[in-house]
Fold this sequence. Notes:
Layout: E1 2-6, H1 13-24, E2 28-30, H2 31-41, H3 44-53, H4 61-72, E3 81-84, H5 90-102, E4 109-114, H6 117-125, E5 127-129, E6 135-137, H7 164-178, H8 180-187, E7 191-195, H9 200-211
Helix pairs in contact: 1-9, 2-3, 4-5, 6-7
Bound molecules: BIS(adenosine)-5'-pentaphosphate (AP5), magnesium ion and zinc ion.
Amino acid sequence: MNIVLFGPPGAGKGTQAKELSKQYDIPHISTGDILRANVRDGTELGMKAKEYMDKGELVPDEVLIGLIKNRINESDCEVGYLLDGYPRTIPQADALASILGEINKPLDAVLNIDVSDDELVARLGGRRTCSCGESYHMKFNPPEKEDVCNACGSELYQRDDDKENVIRQRLTTYNEKTKPLINYYENLGILVNIDGTGTVDGVFADICKVMDQYK
Length: 215
Ligand code: AP5
Ligand code: MG
Ligand code: ZN
C-alpha cells in the first residue's frame, strides 16, 4: 500500500500517520521528522534545512528529492509506506513519480486532509511535540501526564516553527507551493478528500475506510 498523507500544516498528518502505520504495518515516512532529527544531530543537512524551517519556508527540492529517494529504496518500504510531508512541490511530485516508476510501485492514493485555516492556527499554536515523532495538543489531545510523551516518557517541547509568525508563513508557503498538488493528483485520478475536522478517532476511522480498499 503506497499512500501519501497530504494536507496543510496542522491538518493532522503526523497524528494520523502514527496510528495508521501501526494499523497497516507499513513505515511512516515524515520528511519533517527526518529533517528535525538532522537538526538535532547537527548534521550538514540539518544545518542547511534549519535556515528554511525556522522561517516557514520549504527546504530546496534537490535536498528533499535525494532524501526521499534513499528512504523509499530502503528494504522496509517493500511492503508499502505512508508519506507525510512529501511531496510539497510539483518538481517533488514529478521526481516521486519517476522514482516509483523505476521500481514499478506507483502510488495507490493521495489522501487530502482538509481543515480550515482558523482551526489549523489553533491546532499548531497549542501543539506539543516529542522527539519520537508523537504530537499532542494542550487542549484537543493532551498527554496523560502534562508535558510528558505517553509513548516514550520524554519531555514534550514546542517546535520552533509553531510560533505565531512562523505558523502564518507556513500557511502562505502551503497555499503558494503545495496546494497546486491537489489539482495535480486530482488529474491523475488518485486524490481522495478527507474531512479533517472531526475528532482524532473519527478522522482515523474515515481514513481506514479508504485505506482498506488498497490492502
Ligand atoms: P512538517 O514537519 O512536515 O510540518 P507541516 O507540514 O507544517 O505539518 P505539521 O507537522 O505541522 O502538521 P501535521 O499535519 O503533521 O499535524 P499534527 O498531526 O502534528 O515540515 C516542517 C518543515 O520542514 C517545513 O515547513 C519545511 O521547512 C520542511 N519540510 C518538510 N518536508 C519538506 C518537503 N517535502 N519539502 C521542503 N521542505 C520540507 O497535528 C497538529 C496539532 O493538531 C497537534 O497538536 C495535534 O495534537 C492536533 N490534532 C491533530 N488532529 C486533530 C483533530 N482531529 N482534532 C483536534 N486536534 C487535532
Ligand atoms: Mg507533522
Ligand atoms: Zn515520545
